[in-house]
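Memo to structure team: turn this sequence into structure tokens by end of day. - J.P.
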Amino acid sequence: MKCKNCGIQNNKGAKYCENCGKPLSETKGSSRTPKQNYKSKRKKNIGTKKPVSNKRIISNLLSLKFVWVFTTIFLLIIIMIVALTSEEKRFNRDNDLFIDNRSQNPLIEAKVFDIASKFVCGCGSCGEESLDICKCNFAVDERAFIREYLENNNSETDIIKAMVTKYGGLKDGVSLNNNSTAKINKPKAVNNGSTALANFNDRITIYSAFQCPCGQCGIDELKDCTCNHKNGAKEVKKFIDAKISENKYTVAQIIDVVDNTYGGKK
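Reply from structure team:
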């Protein structure tokens, strides 16, 4: 280091001049720390981000997880509802098992469906489906009615009369003879002087005396019509069957009663 007083060059790090003894001083500003470049400092600050709190990260993850869990559960519930609805429709359409509360006695159960086969479902919306194969709730109730009568040891004839009175729907052309077996009836001429009481063998004869009186279906023959209109074929046939089951009218009397009630006599 050069002495400012005498100009002699001294050893590096010496504090006093070896020649004159004067204290050596460093170049002005040499001992100061150089100013840090502002731009580089700013860049450094910009490049350094404050670390995110772990608690905040965990909180965000939990919130996101809750949303996904809720969404998943909601979708699963919707899928289950759709699946159950589809399964119920498929069961009602395709399943061959009935939902009847069946009797423990297999003989009674067989007789229930045998009697039911003589009727059509009386609900009016099953397309005249045979009662022994229809699965709608109304058909189940009708078969339960038959089952209850059988369990109370009623005869088949009494059960059919009770069914006709309450539900109607006895199939056209089917009646019961003394052996309780089905047979096909053919219309016979009405004998106005006959005093014999009408029975279910006379149903077709009585039906054949009328046109359908509803005035809406365009079918002339009552025996061929199955309409569900007011004063229509179903209503009139049920009325006729009820009168037969009362077992106190002749064929001619029932025809007169029906004509007075509904009209439509040929």
